[in-house]
Amino acid sequence: MRSMLNLQNLHATVGEGDEAKPIINGLSLEVPAGEIHAIMGPNGAGKSTLSYVLTGREGYEVTEGSATLEGEDLLSMEPEERAAKGLFLSFQYPIEIPGVPVMTFVRTAMNAQRKLRGEDEISAPEFIKKAREVGAALNIDAEMLKRPLNVGFSGGEKKRLEIFQMMMLEPRFAILDETDSGLDIDALKTVADGVNVLRRSDRGMLVITHYQRLLDYIRPDRVHVLAKGRIVASGGPDLALRLEKEGYDGVLGEPA
Fold this sequence. Notes:
The protein is built from eight helices and twelve strands. By secondary structure, it is of the alpha/beta class. The strands form three sheets. It has a six-stranded mixed beta sheet with strand order 6-9-10-3-11-12, sandwiched between helices. A four-stranded antiparallel beta sheet has the order 2-1-4-5. The protein is globular, with a radius of gyration of 18 Å. The two termini are 32 Å apart. Residues 5-253 form the ABC transporter domain.
């Protein structure tokens, strides 16, 4: 089974100069094509930092190690190049963009990625047809898609919209950074349904979460525990259940 995401001895800091703080400390991880891996860990473990490092967020610097997507060096690419290669990040706290309708934002993003890949732009009729189909699957009505991006949206609406964007863009590899944060059970199921629809043999996903409850609906192939910036335990879905019962101290045998 070929590797989608491969991280080897990754080290990363946040901040600049003397203020730079090590967050990722020798993290190694491999996610094969067709698999969903979950990363769990206590606050401050480096979970969100990992997602920012992989997508190229400013202010985060890799100081050692490697990160490849389908064999290509992610760290040598600009953020927009990583997106064009098929890397997608669903934010824990989606941003608001006043004055920019959801449909305009998503179509612009799709066409920007297509241009970088040397593909033709998606036509308006094709885009609208796809948006309606995806919106219906996620219980997103047409009026919501006309509103400014995330402005005045509830937490659940913002998260559904993140999954809408993911389904429209059809990434090669998706990272979900605590997408379940603040969701009620109905919104949680909707988000999970969207993720499960995208599960394919040629796509990989990394689900970052604090809680087992999301993994009741998105059954991961592997679960990894992140503590102090590195993977300290790995296992099957049962590992998440153990964490729920015993906590991190119980599973790891010492405070994380």
